[in-house]
Amino acid sequence: MKVKDIAEKLKLNIFSGEDSLNTEVNGAYTSDLLSDVMGNAKADSLWITMQTHINIVAVASLKDLAAIIIVKGNKPDEDTLLQSKKEGISILGTDEQAFEISGKIYNLLKEK
Amino acid sequence: MQFEYKIKGGDFSEAGTISSKLKKILKQLNIDNKIIKKVVIALYEAEVNVIAHAYNGKVNIDIDTEKIEINIKDKGPGIENIAKAMEKGFSTATSKVREMGFGAGMGLPNIKKNSDKLDIKSKVSEGTNLKIITFLNK
Fold this sequence. Notes:
The structure holds two protein chains of two kinds.
Chain A: H1 3-9, E1 13-16, E2 28-30, H2 34-40, E3 46-49, H3 55-62, E4 67-70, H4 78-87, E5 90-93, H5 98-111
Parallel strand pairs in A: 2-3, 3-4, 4-5
Antiparallel strand pairs in A: 1-5
Chain B: E1 2-8, H1 17-28, H2 33-53, E2 56-63, E3 67-75, H3 82-85, H4 95-99, H5 107-113, E4 117-123, E5 127-135
Antiparallel strand pairs in B: 1-2, 2-3, 3-5, 4-5
Helix pairs in contact in B: 1-2, 2-5
């Protein structure tokens, strides 16, 4: 399943990185601690978080994550958006909280 | 092959830039992906530590046919109790840093887990030196 399929099915907002929506998704990781994501997230995963600052882009890029999903209607900071465009990382968003969106993504990824 | 980079304390927007550069270099050298992943995690955490705690720092990277050696030297408050700092969950980070999702006491344990050799030397009120070695042929 691709990032764009999940974005469509779950009606996610697309903040940036339209060009990298074709990335294949192989899992997801939900965490707001950057070191936790650095240490434990797997490549090609979606990252579900409430963090919106610029450092999430570096972490996603270093870990080869598929995309970032920001929860609870929060928006990425301006410099986060700029950096994500530079690095080709998609940032998506949802009004739902992390538990709900994680559950939905879990089910979608299990289906395939 | 040797590289040197500088880190400015407090500048979180720059966190990860050196790791990103090293990742590109290692990819060009066709280093095993598993090794790249480990080195990138370790260096990222070290970068964040300097930014979160020190005034400034210097990163020296030395790559030869056997190993990748990274030395991170900072001027800063130093670490009072290294054994304590190595414990998972122990952190002296400020609340502002914690709100950003850093300072969870996972940095040094992550570095240890993702290096083959880790040497820490620190002097209170002077600074900290980290030596991270990753072997290429294991």
